[in-house]
Structures are given as C-alpha cells and as structure tokens.
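Hi F.,

I've been meaning to write this up properly since the lab meeting, where we talked about keeping a consistent format for the predictions we share between groups. The idea is simple: the sequence comes first, exactly as it goes in, then the structure tokens exactly as they come out, then a line or two of notes. No screenshots and no reformatting. I'm using this chain as the first example so we have something concrete to point to.
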Amino acid sequence: MTEHAPSRWLDRTTPPHVTTLVAIAGISALSMNIFLPALPGMALFFDADYAVVQLTISGYLGVTALLQIIIGPLSDRFGRRPVLLVGFASFLLATLGTVLSTSIEMLLFFRMLQAGVASGIVLSRAIVRDMVPPEQAASMIGYVTMGMSLVPMIGPAMGGVLDEIYGWQAGFVMLGVLGVGVLWLIWADLGETNQHKSASFSAQFKAYPDLVRSRRFWGYAMTAGFASGAFFAFLGGAPYVSTVILGMSSAEMGGYFAIVAFGYMIGNFLSGRYAQRAGINRMMIMGGVVAFFGSALSLVMFEIGVLHPLSLFGPMFFVGLGNGLTLPSANAGIVSVRPHLAGSASGLGGAIMIGGGAGLSAVAGVLLDEKSGAFPLFVLMMAVSALAVLTSLYVIRVARKAGPLGEDDFG
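Output, unedited:
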C-alpha cells in the first residue's frame, strides 16, 4: 500500500471522497434492481415469456461476471480512473438503447451492454484497498456499501411507481439521468489511486496463477459468491412470487424491496463498526447464519399458509442483514490476499460472485411456477447460505497455517 494524499472534494489530484465511491457503487447496484417491479409489464409489452424477460437480470449478471475478469486487470495496467470513465460512458450509451428498444431482442442486447457499469462495483473495492490496509478496508467497504444500500432501498419503490405512471421505460430513463451525474463526479473527483501499474496487460494476466493458487482467495471468493447468491436468487424469484402468488402490484412490490435493502444497510453499518474488532472471518460466519435464518423463516411462514407480502419480504430483512455482515469482509479478503493484484483479485472475485448469482437467479426463475409455489426459492436460498458458512470455516482453517493477509506463502 502506498501513502496517498488526503482526499479533497472535487480534486482530481487526490483519492476520491467516500461520497464518490458510494455514488459509483450505488449506480451499479441500482442498475440491477430499479426495473424489477416492471418485469411483468415488460413481458406484456413485448409479448414475451417471463423466463425470457428475466434474462434482463440473469443474462446481465452473466455478462457482468465476464467483464469483471477483464476490468480488474485493465485497471491494474492502466489505472482505476480511465477504466471507470470508459465503463460509465458505455453504460450511458447502452441505457439510451434500452429506452429506444422496440423488441425483446433489442432490449436484451442493450441490457447486456449496460454491464459496463460493473466497473463501479469492481473498482470501488480496489480503490479502497489501494488506500487502506485489510482490516480497515473491511470497515471502509462496509461504510461505502452502507451508503450505497440507500440507493437500492428506494430504487425498486421508485421503479414501481415510475412503471405504473409512465411505463417500463421510465426506470431506464432515470438510470440514464443518474448515470450522467455519476460520470461527471468520476471526472471531477476521482484521482488515480493505483500507484503500481503493471508493465503490460499480458503481464497482468500472467500474474493470475499467483492469485488462483491461493486457497484463501478461493475461500473468500466462494463465501462472497454463496452469500450474494441467496440475494440474487431472491431477485430472480421475488417478482414472480410477488405478482403471481401474492397478487401484488409493481408499486407495492417495489416498496417492500426496501425492507431487504434496509437490512443490508444495517449489516454494512455493523461491518463498518465491528469488522476491525471482530475480524473479517468471524463476520462472514455470523452473516451466513443470519441469512440462513431469514430464508428458513420465510419457508416456514409460506408452508403454514401465511401468504402475505411480509411473509416474503419481512424475513428477507435478515438475508439483507447477513449479506451486509458477510460481503464487506469477504471482499476485503479477496483484494488483500495478493495486494499487488488488488484490481485483478476484485475482478475475478466479482466474476465468481456475480456469475454464481446469474446462475442462481436463472435457476430461481425456472423453478418457480404456480404448482411449486415459493418453496424452491426458499430452499435454494437456505442451501447457498449454508454453503457460505462452510466456506468461511474453510478460510479459518487455511488461516491457521498461513501468515497475515498479503504476506503468506501458503494461503
């Protein structure tokens, strides 16, 4: 880690202000969920099956996963700032394309191109790791994500209202307007934090074996993947359960999504407050247990016949809380195993996390029908939450034989 000058607001020669990092990560998160309440309406507009329209989530996540493998090494080679500027510019052009789409194929094409905004998720973590050491990184990522979580708290609710008043395109218009503001903020405030750029792009990829040989990296990456998988499965299945099984409107569904985001915000606040004290590995275990409890509680309520929006969204508070406890620590671990590869590690770890989420989101969409009810969704979420706990325990086992993060030859 290199010493950086103190952050100064709207100064391109210093590291970014925490507000800028929140905005960068926030618009990336908002692009995943602002239009969720509009999915049934999009299916009607394009006369397409729900499973096809649902590709706007699972397909988008898949492309995001692939991009993260490239974004990390690009930022390690050329710097965080230029990669973010290009990524957000491409996002804005793609957003315009989604608004103008006249067929489901056209919409899906431009939706996949929107994945350029994934640079915000990858590089906000790498920038934090450029600035501070591992345990402090977990706390700072927690605070950044806590601020970021305010955006998806209101995103689905806002998207539901916009859908009912103006139609499904309105959510994408809002994304474009906000994206312009964030791109300006990146230009005005984000100074370069990568002070150790790699010699060449190919050299950066040649360094990947050093990263993938780390058992601890895989432990952190799989923990992040399974923990976030519970949430992504929920994203894939909740619109169907809400509208078909519970008969909710898009605006109602969007409002209830705030419960999940509120839990996530609280979890990130607790991570920011206690990660340095408790240690990142214990935070991950606690998060996995809490998320499992939330999924199990929803399953029990549906199985005993309590079919109410709060039966679905109320227990999801604990899934959000669990993710807020787990992900800042898991992500801090990912980028700290090999500090000189922070961008590549963030990209590869993010690809594992988002790629797994894409698969689970698609699986949730396929498994659900009126006959099965919500049962497959909750079982899937419980299973991946339990796996997150197991991989956290694996990290602890490896850590007993290895040295401190970033200094080990064995982990």
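Notes:
The chain is about 80% helix and 0% strand.
The two ends are 20 Å apart (CA to CA).

If this format works for you, I'll send the rest the same way.

G.
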